[in-house]
Amino acid sequence: MLRFLPDRLVCGIRVLGVVLWAVMAPRLVQATTSVTPEEMAQARRWVAARFEKAEPPFSFVYGGKASAELLKTWKLERASRKLDDQRTERTLTWTDPKTGLVVRCVAIEYHDFPTVEWTLYFKNTGPADTPILENIRALDIGFQRGGEDEFLLHHAVGSKSSPSDYAPLETSLEPGTTKRIAPVGGRPSNGQWPYFNLEWGSEGMIVVVGWPGQWAAEFARDGGSGLRIRAGQELTHFKLLPGEEVRSPLIVLQFWKGDYIRSQNVWRRWMMAHGMPKPGGKLPPPQLLASSSRAYAEMIKANEANQIMHIDRYLEEGLKLDYWWMDAGWYIQQKGWPQVGTWQIDTKRFPRGFKPISDHAHSKGIKILVWFEPERVMPGTWLHEKHPEWLLGGKLLNLGNPKARNWLTNHVDKLLTEQGIDLYRQDFNMDPLAYWRKNDAPDRQGITEIKHVTGYLAYWDELIRRHPNMLIDSCASGGRRNDLETMRRAVPLWRTDHAYKVIAQQCMTYGISLWLPFHGTGTVGCVDAPYYGGGPTPVQPYAFWSNAAPSLVWGIDIRVKQLDYAMLRRLLGQWRTISRYYYGDYYPLTPYSLEKNVWITWQFHRPELGEGMVQAFRRAESPAGSTHFKLCGLDPLARYAIIDLNENKPLEMRGHELMHNGLPVNVQTKPTAVVVTYCTF
């Protein structure tokens, strides 16, 4: 049975229904997101069984024979090295004495989290082509549950530019059923989300597939209490040429005991420690950006003068930016911004390039973001005309081609350096899967995808090596490339192309925050603003907070001097005050819902600071009257000073009151956003 997550009390128990959510008491949840010895012991036992006793957590078929039988007869070598205090790398290498195929499993065991990850590598060290290697499942494990509680799979909608982007889902895995999940078209979070949390009873396991291509995952129940999980690249059926090496998707497992939402917070902490980019050695701070894209049809009507004017207008109004954002359309083109493939600045509009703009911004303490979409190539552009041999199907730049990748790396690096660009933004507005598969011979199915994916990651790794303080933004028609391998190198500053819609954006923050601590979207500060357009717009706090996220992009028409800038400054100041809490533990306090007649509410909590915030949204058709929201993770004995940012009147409550009786909220207007901060004293 599949359903949106509507009626599970996220602090640890179940409730009777949506209406009762906000009035029934949750289990008292204290600051218990620290990893427990039991969880670490469970992970250690699993690693020992799989990587010390060589019971591989993967499978493949080679020459028509299953790996489970083949590997028993192949030479096995083990190696281990300590990477740092938190990680040990374990490498298992099997060699086929007949064909020279080498299978290498590189695993990392974490000592600060109950987590293990691994990637497979296949190399032909023989003098001839290998037999067919197929059905590679980077994850292939089976296990039995104890107790009577059925397996429950937590997963999510990916991004598809719709109101339901990142919606949390639940599937009950009944005996004899199989749940298969895969994205659409080769972009890894296009429609489906490559992050899973499998729950049974009071324990579970997070399963993540890191692959910026076409993956598939399968959860198959037997008739009793067993479950088998298989995941990997969706299609593999190929021979390897002499000397050729390929890799599998990254697999990550994290073991947990307790309750589901606590496990998600342990995951968020692991992401911040090990799964996110750290330019200059630090996590990216919450940031405010702005662009003129709505006013100038992206950058089609932009020029040097109006970009500098926009920067100055923000500063004139006291709206201090972290980045000035220059999006699609700045390059030479004749048919609009989608005509990509000539990565040269249009000197008709920018006769001196971007340097005057970046120099001006830098002099004001503002950095520069610039948009690229290198993989898609359109007719009439430089790449299309000069290097058709680099293109798949005449449209997809093949990053598996070393010459194409080297040219792109050097060309973009030169632009970043010479033009003073501080943040590299990469979009990808096409589905690559058909181009990859059409390029494969019958005995090489999956190879083009593997080489493109590894080339894409190598391209970013080299950019990061050359620019270690630079942040990368991943955008693929919004958020369709947010797999873990990508998220280790980038952040999604534009999580969806379904922008500015207030209820949809509330729900996206609700869903994506379970998995990614850092993400962003745009705001115009008014309800359901159109994607493009200029002119005056009202400033509505409800709309601003509905779009608020760790990264926020202004889309207002700063040319209009009649906007309520005093309110904009106030909202920005409040966002700056609360933004540090986005890296805290995350607790949904109401069910997920796109309906107009409900509240939607969540909490971000920083237990190490004794501080946090609550964001509550009363939608336009929700019932009148006061309500209570039961908080999570607090110290029951501590006193908390609570401040509603709208009223700025402090309230004092004990932790146990806030968790048992709830935070009182009484607003009569609708729609309304309530933002509350709290701290111990």
Q: TL;DR of this structure?
A:
The chain is an alpha+beta fold and 681 residues long. The strands form seven sheets. Strands 1, 4, 5, 6, 7, 10, 11, 13, 14, 18 and 19 form an eleven-stranded antiparallel beta sheet that branches. Strands 27-25-22-21-20-29-28 form a seven-stranded parallel beta sheet, covered by helices on one side. A six-stranded antiparallel beta sheet has the order 30-31-32-37-34-35.
Q: What is the CATH C level class of the largest domain, in words? A: Alpha Beta
Number of strands: 37
State the fourth-level CATH superfamily of the largest domain: Aldolase class I
Low-confidence stretches: 1-31
Total number of helical segments? 14
Helix content percent band:
10-25%
Mean pLDDT: 94
Largest sheet, in brief, is: 11 strands, antiparallel
What is the distance, rounded to the nearest whole angstrom, between the alpha carbons of the first and last residues?
46 Å
Tell me the number of structural domains. Answer: 3
The gross shape turns out to be: globular
Assigned CATH architecture of the largest domain: Alpha-Beta Barrel
User: What fold name stands as the CATH topology of the largest domain?
Assistant: TIM Barrel
- From the alpha carbons, calculate the radius of gyration and give it in angstroms: 26 Å
Pairing-aware structural class of the strands and helices?
alpha+beta
Classify the beta-strand content into a percent band.
25-35%
Task: Outline the fold blueprint.
Elements: E1 2-4, H1 37-52, E2 59-62, E3 65-66, H2 67-73, E4 75-84, E5 87-95, E6 101-110, E7 115-124, E8 133-137, E9 139-144, E10 151-156, E11 168-173, E12 178-181, E13 195-200, E14 203-210, E15 215-221, E16 226-233, E17 237-238, E18 245-247, E19 250-257, H3 260-275, E20 287-291, H4 304-316, E21 323-326, H5 355-363, E22 367-372, H6 382-386, E23 391-392, E24 396-397, H7 402-418, E25 423-426, H8 433-438, E26 444-445, H9 447-466, E27 471-474, H10 484-487, H11 502-512, E28 520-523, H12 541-547, E29 551-554, H13 565-578, E30 585-588, E31 599-606, E32 611-618, E33 626-629, E34 639-644, E35 650-654, H14 655-660, E36 663-666, E37 672-680
Parallel strand pairs: 20-21, 20-29, 21-22, 22-25, 25-27, 28-29
Antiparallel strand pairs: 1-11, 2-3, 2-8, 4-5, 5-6, 6-7, 7-18, 7-19, 8-17, 9-16, 10-11, 10-13, 12-15, 13-14, 14-19, 15-16, 17-26, 23-24, 30-31, 31-32, 32-37, 33-36, 34-35, 34-37
